[in-house]
Structure formats: C-alpha cells, structure tokens
Design goal:
234 residues; alpha/beta; eight-stranded mixed sheet; 7 helices; 32% helix; binds iron/sulfur cluster
Length: 234
C-alpha cells in the first residue's frame, strides 16, 4: 500500500507568486534533500515521520476545503519531487483530480518529473539563486517551456544584487535559447524569519527590475507581512 509522508494539510491564502490571494488547501510533504541555505521550512527536511494513508489525507482535505468549496490544492514540501515522494504524489494527484480538485505543485527547481507534471494543472518552479547555495540547470527550464507552455511560472528568491544579476543572466541566456520568454517569471524578495520587514530590499529589487525594462514580476510573500516571517501553515 502507498505510504504518504505528510508534514501538514491546511487551508490558507496563497501568499506568493502569480496566484497570490487565491484560497487553497496546502498538502505539505515531509522530506527534502535539496538543502537550500536560506530555507524557511527546515522542519520539513527529515523523512522520519509516521506515514499516513490517502483516506486520512482526503478526509483532512475535505475538512480544510469546506467539503470541496475551495477547489485548488497546492502540493508543497519539503520537496514533493524527491524520488521517495514521487509515487505518492502521482497517486494522490490522480485521486484528487478524480474528486474534482485543481492542482498546483511547488517544485524545488532541481527536477522535471513528467509523470507528476502531466497530471497537474499548474507548476510553480524555482530558479535557485546563489544565496540558496543550490543551482537550477537551465536545461530544466527549457524543457518546461517546451513541454508545459502556459502551465508554469518560474520563481526566484532574491536576497541581494548578486541574486538579481544571476537571475537576469539566466533570463538573457534563456531568451537566447528559447527566442522569447512567454512564461511568468517572478522575483520574490527574500524575507528571513530573523529580520524585520526588508523594505529597502523590496525597493532595490523593484528599481533594478525597472532599469532592465521590467522583465520580471516582483511579488513579495504576503503571508509573511500578515503573520510574520516565522509563522507556519499560513
Ligand atoms: S527545496 Fe524548499 S524545503 Fe527544500 S531546502 Fe529548499 S527551500 Fe527548503
């Protein structure tokens, strides 16, 4: 029987990316081996958790979604695309689609997993920046652009000018290889749990983007403004 490693299932308003403001239920998988230096959910790294069943997940999803009135679900982590999670994510996605839900996945930017992506309605894919200490291969984004056109956004967390320049460099390279960038590319100004609201960082990133003609959408993490950068499951 399929086993599911789940950290939490909760209702919240999407706080970042192009769907900011949308009500949805988050299904957060437990377990990640990506190792971003500035990860804001290190509690999801360990794979050591009591597995749960698809029936229990669905019961909680129904409760949190007000019996399906909220019809978007975001599968997140941890890293839901870690090979240990993939069979469960595939099975859960098929199950939830059959029940009429629409599905987004938060993908860590290290893998394109077709058997998962083809069952989903939307893919939010990370471009890892230098401050994360992790790298996203641009070939993965080319693959997304070729195979999942209109169905994904790219998100890059920006801590400083180095991150911005790196992201701009990636944009220029992809513009060259793809011809044009059609997909939404979001810059998320970093807001660390340990710091006050980083207003100057937001202002700087907006200005850097404008100076380049505005290739990106600068969208902060609204949930952190409302609840604080430490608060979980919001
Ligand atoms: S992929 Fe996500 S959960 Fe994993 S280390 Fe990076 S930010 Fe944290």
């Amino acid at each position: 029987m399929q086993q599911y490693l789940i950290n939490d299932i909760y209702r919240a308003t999407e706080g970042e990316g192009v769907f900011v403001g949308r009500s949805q239920v988050f299904v957060r998988f437990q377990g990640c081996a990506v190792g971003c230096i500035n990860c804001d959910s290190m509690d999801t790294w360990s794979f050591e958790i009591e597995p749960t069943s698809i029936e229990s997940i669905f019961e909680k999803v129904l409760e949190e979604s007000y019996q399906g009135k909220i019809d978007w679900i975001s599968i997140t982590g941890g890293d839901p695309l870690h090979p240990k999670h993939v069979p469960s994510v595939v099975a859960l996605s098929k199950f939830l689609k059959e029940k009429g839900f629409k599905l987004n996945i938060e993908a860590a930017g290290t893998r394109v997993v077709d058997e998962v992506f083809e069952n989903l309605d939307y893919i939010s894919f990370d471009l890892k920046t230098p401050s994360t200490g992790v790298q996203t291969r641009l070939a993965l984004i080319e693959k997304l652009a070729q195979n999942y056109d209109g169905k994904f956004q790219l998100k890059a967390v920006i801590a400083d000018r180095k991150d911005f320049d790196y992201t701009l460099g990636a944009y220029r390279k992809l513009e060259e290889s793809l011809g044009t960038i059609e997909f939404p590319w979001v810059l998320t100004p970093c807001f660390e749990p340990s710091e006050e609201f980083p207003m100057q960082r937001f202002i700087d990133i907006q200005e850097w983007n404008q100076l380049e003609g505005g290739p990106f959408r600068v969208i902060g993490q609204q949930h952190k403004w409302i609840y604080g950068a430490d608060k979980k499951s919001v």
